[in-house]
């Protein structure tokens, strides 16, 4: 049961999300910009309960994808669960059947040996020319129809093994269209697989690097010709979840004495260039990176002091957050040839997450980052993010879009007004806890403090999610 002493955001996850078919969306106010043509996609956990039982962690929810299509005729939306094999089996049984990030499978532990983990397909999306991929940390992606979101099935991108993970944060080279991604194969000593795909998603190159123990790696960063991983000192005690004695989340240990390991790869060959060490910290997400004129790498990351964030996110599923976990924006300078950190600097001390940049600036120098943050005066120890913002790296100015009390926007997505444009819009899905409704809000990227220029109503509540993307028409 959800806690009765809870904030407005919890109403969005109280019940399983309701799908809706492709539906014309009403313009609640404003006007859809003339140049905004394409599709906006978002993914996140749509169902956190089944058969009267709650999930063990927010990350365990079944993935549900929202698509908003903008055409000359207006905007239409569709929202559907990803029809994973696990989702279909649990729907038929009306109960949880599989182990997951924060859950053990039901039943005695001796019945759980070797049980397959459920692919939730709930973390992010990647739009390819002829399909949309729903991404998750621990397995193959699921392919969906770009227009209707009908589930096509798992997709091995021409060369993934059945159990190979294809992670949720691919990086796309804005100049060549090449796609880079990774997957951590969890064994007693994990393997880091690196993948290079062409613009259709087909994997054309793959390498494997041995890791020490089983770390938790959610994201990486591209900076010029390099791919960089900061391996935080979280280690998974692999045997308990493998034997069905605990969930993966409960088997994670914070070991600051290990420090943060730095791995630098050449993105043309996917070969390891250097290893280094840094102070201990944890991160879920990087903002961006580039190669500076002196050859050093400049990287921006949303950085936590420790791993309390995992407990914080676990509590989201209960409807009440009690464990504070604050990430702030840091800039790190790194020598790619040695893996040595040259300098670290906190560039924004306001709590934030989900830093993103314009798609044509991924891996390149940039000025503006778009991110999630809290409304002024919000109790960040109990609230989900209630605002989005634009951070100017040149002036350190933070422009905030505050959608109002009890309103919770998703990760902001920048949409350029034409190829390689600095001008454009910021799109976000907002849950309004006052009316228990969801809507899509469109802001001018350089006027976030102003009212949105357009607001579209959605037929049902879309719960808080994780990541999205934009596919131009």
Structure description:
The chain is mainly beta. The protein is 5% helix and 42% strand. The strands form 9 sheets. Strands 2, 30, 31, 32, 33 and 34 form a 6-stranded antiparallel beta sheet that branches. A hairpin with a 5-residue loop joins strand 13 and strand 14. The protein is globular, with a radius of gyration of 21 Å. 48% of the residues are buried. The mean pLDDT is 95.
Summed over residues and divided by their number, the pLDDT gives a mean of 95
Using the coordinates shown, work out and report the CATH topology: Methylamine Dehydrogenase, Chain H
Strand content range: 35-45%
The N- and C-terminal alpha carbons lie at a distance of 43 Å
Low-confidence stretches: none
CATH architecture: 7 Propeller
Helical fraction equals under 10%
How many DSSP helices? 3
Assigned CATH class: Mainly Beta
Structural class: mainly beta
| Major beta-sheet overview | 6 strands, antiparallel
Rg (C-alpha, Å): 21 Å
Number of domains: 1
Q: What's the name of the CATH homologous superfamily?
A: YVTN repeat-like/Quinoprotein amine dehydrogenase
Which word captures the global form?
globular
Number of strands: 35
């Amino acid at each position: 049961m959800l806690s009765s002493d809870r904030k407005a955001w919890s109403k969005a996850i109280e019940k399983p999300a309701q799908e809706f078919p492709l539906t014309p969306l009403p313009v609640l106010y404003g006007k859809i910009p003339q140049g905004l043509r394409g599709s906006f996609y978002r993914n996140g956990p749509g169902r956190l309960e089944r058969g009267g039982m709650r999930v063990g962690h927010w990350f365990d929810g079944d993935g549900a994808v929202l698509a908003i299509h903008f055409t000359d005729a207006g905007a239409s939306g569709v929202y559907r669960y990803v029809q994973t094999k696990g989702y279909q089996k649990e729907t038929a049984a009306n109960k949880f059947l599989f182990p997951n990030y924060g859950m053990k499978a039901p039943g005695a532990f001796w019945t759980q040996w070797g049980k397959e983990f459920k692919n939730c397909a709930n973390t992010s999306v990647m739009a390819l020319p002829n399909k949309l991929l729903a991404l998750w940390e621990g397995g193959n992606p699921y392919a969906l129809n770009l227009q209707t979101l009908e589930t096509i099935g798992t997709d091995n991108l021409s060369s993934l093994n059945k159990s190979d993970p294809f992670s949720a944060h691919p990086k796309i080279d804005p100049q060549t269209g090449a796609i880079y991604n990774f997957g951590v194969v969890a064994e007693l000593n994990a393997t880091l697989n690196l993948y290079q795909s062409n613009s259709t998603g087909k994997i054309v190159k793959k390498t494997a690097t041995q890791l020490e123990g089983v770390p938790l790696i959610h994201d990486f960063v591209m900076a010029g010709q390099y791919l960089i991983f900061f391996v935080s000192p979280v280690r998974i005690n692999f045997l308990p979840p493998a034997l069905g004695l605990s969930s993966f989340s409960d088997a994670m240990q914070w070991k600051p004495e290990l420090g943060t390991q730095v791995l630098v790869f050449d993105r043309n060959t996917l070969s390891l260039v250097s290893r280094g060490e840094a102070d201990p910290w944890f991160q879920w997400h990087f903002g961006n990176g580039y190669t500076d004129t002196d050859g050093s790498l400049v990287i921006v990351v949303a950085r936590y002091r420790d791993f309390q964030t995992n407990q914080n996110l676990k509590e989201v599923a209960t409807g009440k957050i009690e464990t504070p976990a604050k990430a702030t924006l840091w800039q790190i300078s790194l020598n790619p040839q040695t893996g040595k950190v040259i300098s670290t600097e906190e560039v924004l001390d306001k709590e934030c997450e989900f830093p993103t940049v314009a798609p044509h600036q991924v891996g390149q120098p940039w000025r503006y980052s778009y991110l999630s943050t809290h409304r002024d005066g919000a109790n960040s120890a109990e609230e989900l993010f209630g605002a989005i913002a634009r951070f100017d790296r040149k002036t350190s100015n933070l422009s905030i879009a505050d959608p109002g009390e009890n309103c919770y926007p998703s990760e902001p997505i920048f949409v350029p007004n034409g190829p390689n444009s600095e001008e454009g819009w910021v799109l976000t899905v907002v849950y309004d806890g006052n009316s228990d409704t969801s809507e899509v809000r469109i802001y001018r990227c350089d006027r976030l403090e102003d009212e949105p220029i357009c607001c579209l109503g959605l037929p049902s509540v879309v719960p808080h999610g994780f990541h999205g993307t934009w596919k131009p028409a």
